[in-house]
Design goal:
8-stranded mixed sheet, alpha/beta
Length: 287
C-alpha cells in the first residue's frame, strides 16, 4: 500500500487508471490496517464521511466509482454495470499493493462488494456489508415488508406525507422518492436532511447502467457466496426501508461464516444515527 498509515485530505484525491483507461479517484483517511469501502448510489463517496469515526481504527480506502465524485466518466457507458466495476475494485487492490483486502460495501456498493467476493474470494480477508443492496444475490423485498416496517414510524410528524408517497409508489401510481426519504434515517432532523441532499447521485447515466441487463447473475453469485470462506458481517438498520432487517437476514444466510446484527434506532446510514454503536460493531468484527 502506498501510504497505509497516513491520512490524505479529502481535497487531495489519489488516482489510478482502470484497465479500460478510465481514471479513477480514491481517498485515504484514518490510520491502521486498510479497509476498502465501496460506496453506494452510485454517488459521490463523500456521503460516507469517515463512517462515524471508524477511521480511528482503520485506514479507510474510499473510491469514487467511475463517473462519480472525482473519477472520470468512461467512454463506454456499459462499463458502469455493477459486474464490470468488479475489475475497478481489483485494480485498486493491486494499486494498493495488498495481497488480500478487508472490504466494506454500503447500499448498492454491497452488490459490487459481494460480486467481488464471489469472483475473487482469495483476495478478501473480511467482508462487511452495511445496509446492503441485495440484487446481486437475488434477495427480493416485497412491498408488504416495507409497509410493515414503515408503519412502525407512524408516530413521526413526517409520517403521513411519507407513507402516502410510499403507498403510491407501491401501487405504481407515484414516484415521489424524495417524500419517502425520512424512512431512510433514524432521525429526520436537520443533519439528516443535509446528508440526504448532499448525497444524491448526480450522474443519471451511472445510475441507469449500474443495474442494467446482465449486471447481476444471482444463481452464480449465490453459489459462489455459499463457498466463501472468509468471515462476513451483515449490519442492518432497524428502521431501514431500503434494506429491511428481515431481507438482510436472508442475505446473511447465504454465507457459511456470517454474523448478522441489527442496529437499533438506525436507518440506511447507521453511522449517522449512532456512530458509537456502529463503530463498536465494525471495529470488533474487523479486529
Amino acid at each position: 500500500m502506498r501510504s497505509p498509515r497516513g491520512e490524505t485530505p479529502p481535497s487531495s484525491p489519489l488516482l489510478l487508471t482502470a484497465p479500460d483507461g478510465t481514471r479513477l479517484a480514491h481517498r485515504l483517511t484514518g490510520s491502521g490496517a486498510p479497509l476498502l469501502c465501496v460506496p453506494g448510489g452510485p454517488a459521490d463517496s463523500a456521503y460516507l464521511g469517515d463512517l462515524g469515526g471508524l477511521s480511528a481504527h482503520r485506514t479507510l480506502v474510499i473510491p469514487d466509482l467511475r463517473g462519480t465524485g472525482r473519477s472520470d466518466r468512461p467512454v463506454d457507458p456499459s462499463s458502469y454495470r455493477c459486474d464490470r466495476q468488479v475489475e475497478d475494485v481489483e485494480a485498486l487492490r493491486r494499486h494498493l499493493g495488498l495481497d488480500r483486502v478487508d472490504l466494506l460495501g454500503h447500499s448498492a456498493g454491497a452488490n459490487l462488494a459481494a460480486q467481488y467476493a464471489a469472483r475473487y474470494p482469495h483476495r478478501v480477508g473480511r467482508l462487511a456489508l452495511v445496509a446492503p443492496g441485495m440484487r446481486a444475490a437475488g434477495v427480493d423485498i416485497g412491498p408488504a415488508v416495507r409497509r410493515e416496517l414503515a408503519l412502525e414510524r407512524a408516530g413521526e410528524p413526517w409520517f403521513p406525507a411519507a407513507f402516502a408517497a410510499l403507498e403510491a409508489i407501491a401501487a405504481g401510481e407515484g414516484s415521489d422518492w424524495e417524500a419517502v426519504a425520512p424512512f431512510l434515517y433514524g432521525r429526520w432532523d436537520e443533519a439528516a436532511r443535509r446528508h440526504h441532499a448532499e448525497g444524491q447521485p448526480d450522474n443519471p447515466e451511472a445510475v441507469a447502467h449500474f443495474g442494467a441487463d446482465g449486471a447481476f447473475t444471482p444463481d452464480t453469485t449465490r453459489a459462489a457466496l455459499a463457498a466463501f470462506a472468509a468471515p462476513v458481517l451483515l449490519l442492518a438498520g432497524a428502521h431501514d426501508l431500503n434494506s429491511p432487517p428481515s431481507a438482510v437476514a436472508e442475505f446473511a444466510a447465504l454465507f457459511p461464516h456470517a454474523s448478522f446484527t441489527v442496529q437499533p434506532g438506525a436507518g440506511h446510514y447507521p453511522w449517522l444515527d449512532d456512530p458509537g454503536r456502529f463503530v463498536a460493531a465494525l471495529a470488533a468484527f474487523l479486529a
